[in-house]
């Protein structure tokens, strides 16, 4: 009986040893695999972060400055009180005014043509009607002449903008007051030269 107990004890010891020796070798590769997986994940994350960071600046690198279109117009004339931006606004206003004044002038000419045709058709009108038509036609001609003069003045101001001499008097070449040009962008004479012209 003592021999049987000893054999059972030896068998139990061998079984425990085999369990211990079987478990330890399996755990080591699992830990190494886990470490390898963690390192690979970190490396992949680092590559992803570097890639996304490198793409970010390229979206804004080629944006042009907002003032490029204005700067292309060139500097303001030497000795002028006007900035490039102000001269650009004057140009826009003159282009609009020239288009409107040309349309007004064309309408005035069309009205004069209509009155002349009406005058020829009314050969049998009495003296009062004939005089009224003549007065109306002369009035329209005066309006057309005024509109033509204003149109020519605006076109001259535009030419001076193109040449870089806008803001200087056509007669004496002295600077025209900025306040005068802000009120009348098409002015080509300073106050003194304008007064001298009106006294003639």
What can you tell me about this protein's structure?
Keywords: Metal-binding, Zinc, Zinc-finger. One of its GO terms (molecular function) is zinc ion binding. This is RNA polymerase-binding transcription factor DksA. It is a single chain. This protein has 200 residues and is an all-alpha fold. It has a domain at 78-166. The chain contains six helices and no strands. Helix 3 (84-121) packs antiparallel against helix 4. The N and C termini lie far apart (153 Å). 7% of the residues are buried.
Quick tags:
200 residues; mainly alpha; 74% helix; elongated; single chain
Quick synopsis:
This protein has 200 residues and is an all-alpha fold.
List the helices and strands and how they pair.
Layout: H1 2-55, H2 68-71, H3 84-121, H4 127-163, H5 178-183, H6 191-199
Helix pairs in contact: 3-4
InterPro entries: DnaK_N, Znf_DskA_TraR, Znf_DskA_TraR_CS
Keywords: Metal-binding, Zinc, Zinc-finger
Domain Zinc finger DksA/TraR C4-type: 164-199
The span between the termini is 153 Å
Secondary-structure element pattern, one letter each = HHHHHH
Coarse shape: elongated
* Helix content, binned percent: over 70%
Radius of gyration of CA atoms, rounded to a whole number = 48 Å
Zinc finger (dksA C4-type): 169-193
Protein name: RNA polymerase-binding transcription factor DksA
GO molecular function: zinc ion binding
Region (Disordered): 1-83
């Amino acid at each position: 009986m003592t021999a049987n107990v000893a054999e059972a004890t030896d068998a139990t010891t061998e079984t425990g040893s085999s369990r211990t020796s079987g478990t330890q070798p399996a755990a080591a590769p699992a830990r190494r695999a886990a470490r390898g997986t963690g390192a690979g994940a970190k490396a992949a994350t680092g590559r992803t972060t570097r890639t996304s960071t490198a793409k970010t600046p390229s979206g804004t690198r080629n944006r042009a400055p907002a003032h490029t279109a204005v700067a292309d117009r060139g500097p303001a004339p030497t000795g002028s009180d006007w900035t490039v931006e102000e001269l650009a606004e004057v140009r826009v206003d003159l282009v609009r005014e020239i288009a409107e004044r040309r349309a007004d002038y064309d309408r005035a000419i069309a009205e004069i043509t209509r009155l002349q045709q009406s005058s020829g058709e009314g050969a049998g009108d009495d003296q009062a009607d004939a005089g009224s038509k003549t007065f109306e036609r002369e009035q329209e001609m005066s309006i057309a002449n005024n509109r033509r003069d204003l149109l020519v003045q605006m076109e001259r101001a535009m030419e001076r903008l193109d040449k870089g001499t806008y803001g200087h008097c056509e007669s004496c070449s002295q600077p025209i007051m900025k306040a005068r040009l802000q009120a009348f962008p098409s002015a080509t004479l300073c106050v003194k030269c304008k007064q001298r012209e009106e006294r003639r």
